[in-house]
Every structure is written in structure tokens, then in C-alpha cells.
Design goal:
Strand order of the largest sheet: 6-5-4-1-11
Low-confidence stretches: 104-109
Number of helices: 0
Number of domains: 1
Structural class: mainly beta
Length: 115
């Protein structure tokens, strides 16, 4: 898959929310649906990319200092709610994706790699 799809594999240690979708603990793949026509539609698939979990419309996000690795941030934890993904940046990119806060938000341990 070309780099323009921003394919990123994430591993989460517990369930997280991405907008109104709950991802169970494990491996998941984030990628752009079609970078040549839309740079804000994100697909989330299971870890081996055999099942589409959800398709989301993300909000463009910007960071001043692009890092050389994937950055996945989470909304501040609030009580017993699931951790909620806030932003996703591909390595070296200033522009990334912001996910709308679901009915709950938080912080979680997550690791990500780009493929």
C-alpha cells in the first residue's frame, strides 16, 4: 500500500473509543480511505485487515513539530469512561487527523507503527 494511505498499525492494551466506535484491546489498522480524493476519511480495520470496523470523517489537525514516529493522543480521562482517541499523526507529517470526542473520553496506553 502506498505511503499516501498513512497506514498505521496500533496496539491497544484495553478497549478504547474512536468517536462512537469501541475498539477492543489488540491490533488495529488506521488508514485513509482514498487519499487521492479525500484526505479526511479514515478507515479502521482489524489487525489483519480482513474486516472493516468503521469509517470515520476526521477533522484536520496540525502540529508544529512533526515527530519521526506515529503519534496517537487521547482525550483527558474522565471517570470510568473508555479512553478516547483524540488525534492521529503519521511520522514526519505536520497535518494529521482529529477525532470527535465521543460520549466518554480518557487516556490509554497505546503503541503504534506505520507500515
Amino acid at each position: 500500500m502506498p505511503e499516501s494511505y498513512k497506514k498505521t498499525t496500533i496496539t491497544v492494551s484495553r478497549a478504547i473509543a474512536v468517536q462512537d466506535t469501541v475498539l477492543p484491546a489488540g491490533h488495529h489498522v488506521l488508514r485513509l480511505l482514498n487519499p487521492s480524493t479525500s484526505r479526511d476519511v479514515v478507515e479502521i480495520l482489524n489487525g489483519d485487515e480482513t474486516r472493516l470496523i468503521t469509517t470515520l470523517l476526521a477533522i484536520p489537525a496540525y502540529r508544529f513539530d512533526p515527530a519521526g514516529e506515529v503519534n496517537l493522543s487521547f482525550y483527558e480521562e474522565r471517570g470510568e469512561e473508555l479512553p478516547a482517541s483524540h488525534t492521529w499523526f503519521y511520522p514526519g507529517d505536520n497535518f494529521g487527523f482529529e477525532f470527535r470526542q465521543p460520549r466518554g473520553s480518557s487516556t490509554a496506553e497505546a503503541s503504534a507503527t506505520s507500515n
